[in-house]
Specification:
Strand order of the largest sheet: 12-11-8-13-16-17-19-20
Strand content: 15-25%
Structural class: alpha/beta
CATH topology of the largest domain: Rossmann fold
Distance between the termini: 38 Å
Shape: globular
CATH class of the largest domain: Alpha Beta
Number of domains: 2
Helix content: 25-40%
Bound molecules: cytidine-5'-triphosphate
């Protein structure tokens, strides 16, 4: 039986961690619980012990009492360490290597992978200090799930709500399925294929459309299904890459072995990409909406006899161009997509130059091709050196070939710069 060491931090979301113990047990994963001092304000050691069927460790457990179980041994007694809720304070301690209580000492002493489920007030989550700590933790190889967006216990609205127990349990299963930690994230092999040509490489992929709200019920969108981008994320992970997929609203499930972040708008997509960087490869497969309305209505716009509503549009950030034009933080290999309905190659060539990427995957998405939303694709690889025309193939096969082409190109380039 797999076992996690579950560190419960002191936040309102702590009660959800009791449910997490149950959800993990349903999946055949045992939990050994550590409560911080603050966590005990929210859940009792007795309820955690009852649910986990194991002794619960807290501050009363002496760090020097080796008679029972030393803290080093405790920190390694599980296959994975899960911190839920990961409060701003716990994240800060982890990022700086502080070890002034049992939880932070275990987190510093462990040789196992760590998965955090952050939960805090939205301002605390968005504070530059927490952003910095998160980036540090990620580059140390710490995995993260959530937080989600919604109304919070403190009455504010926005990102900061702890992921739901089932989402955390999914992330735990994914992490347990991945190969053992090598050193830091940059050297982490992707799931299942430690020896793949992209082993240890980090890739960020965008996919799907974006939805740009007009009012609380209406939005601007496009017909992208996300299938090609999702298939590509999966194929890159199959070659050993550590892949973050930033997906617009689509009905597709998270690809196995890929860290998936769901977003709605172009601005959210850019923020999520930024958070996932640095990377060795950035693939922009999303059909990002080019425009959004200048002023989003707070209430549903009502129909008025004889008067049509008018909307001013403003341009969305160009995610691909903004990442490709970065200096030091630019991923060494950047792949864009071009969805065209005419003069496919000509437009793709122009886009390659305009956006500053290294490779454009161009396709004809006129309605008669059935490519948008369909399962097949016919693409052309456009680089500064020329054009490669590929035959009509299933999107999964296009994804496999693209992943191989990306691996081949990357092999000839410099290492990750940040
Ligand atoms: N793209 C992006 N951000 C945008 C628009 C596009 O990252 N705001 C990326 C897409 O993911 C794709 C590439 O840019 O990789 C080309 O997208 P496409 O919609 O074909 O190009 P546009 O910039 O919209 O150009 P045009 O309107 O001339 O077709």
């Amino acid at each position: 039986m797999k076992r996690v060491l579950l560190v419960i931090g002191g936040g309102v979301a702590a009660y959800k961690s009791l449910d997490l113990i149950r959800r993990l047990r349903e999946r055949g994963i045992a939990s050994r619980v550590v409560l911080t001092r603050a966590a005990k304000q929210f859940v009792t050691p007795l309820s955690a012990a009852g649910l986990s069927g194991d002794k619960v460790y807290d501050e009363l457990f002496s760090l020097t009492d080796e008679a029972e179980m030393g803290h080093i041994q405790l920190s390694r007694s599980a296959d994975l360490v899960v911190v839920a809720p990961a409060t701003a304070d716990l994240m800060a301690k982890m990022a700086h290597g502080l070890a002034d209580d049992l939880a932070s000492t275990l987190l510093l002493a462990t040789d196992k992978r760590v998965l955090i489920a952050p939960a805090m007030n939205v301002r605390m989550w968005l504070h530059p200090a927490t952003r910095r700590n998160l980036a540090t933790l990620k580059s140390d190889g710490v995995l993260a799930v959530g937080p989600g967006e919604g109304e919070m216990a403190c009455g504010e609205f926005g990102p900061g709500r702890m992921a739901e127990p089932n989402e955390i349990a999914d992330a735990v299963e994914r992490a347990l399925g991945e190969p053992a930690r090598i050193a830091a994230t940059h050297a982490l092999p992707g799931p299942g294929t430690a020896l793949g040509p992209l082993a240890g490489k980090r890739v960020v992929v965008t996919a799907g459309p974006t939805h740009e709200p007009i009012d609380p019920v209406r939005y601007i969108a496009n017909r992208s299904s996300g299938k090609q981008g999702f298939a590509l994320a999966r194929a890159l992970a199959d070659l050993g890459a550590y892949v973050t997929l930033v997906a617009g609203p689509v009905g597709l499930p998270d690809p196995a072995g890929v860290t998936t972040r769901r977003v709605e708008t172009a601005r959210e997509m850019l923020a999520a990409v930024d958070e996932a960087l640095p990377a060795d490869v950035f693939v922009a497969a999303a059909a990002v909406a080019d425009w959004r309305v200048a002023t989003e209505g707070g209430e549903k716009i009502k129909k008025q006899a004889g008067a049509l509503p008018r909307f001013d549009l403003i341009e969305n950030p160009d995610i691909l161009a903004s990442i490709a034009r970065r200096g030091a933080g630019r991923p060494p290999l950047i792949v864009g997509f071009a969805a065209e309905t005419e003069k496919v190659i000509e437009h793709a060539r122009a886009k390659l130059a305009r956006k500053g990427c290294d490779l454009i995957v161009a396709n004809d998405v006129s309605p008669q091709t059935g490519i948008m939303g369909g399962d097949r694709n016919r693409v052309h690889l456009v680089t500064a050196d020329g054009v490669e025309d590929w035959p009509d193939l299933g999107k999964d096969e296009v994804a496999r070939r693209l992943a191989a082409a990306i691996a081949a190109r990357l092999a000839g380039r410099r290492e990750i710069s940040a």
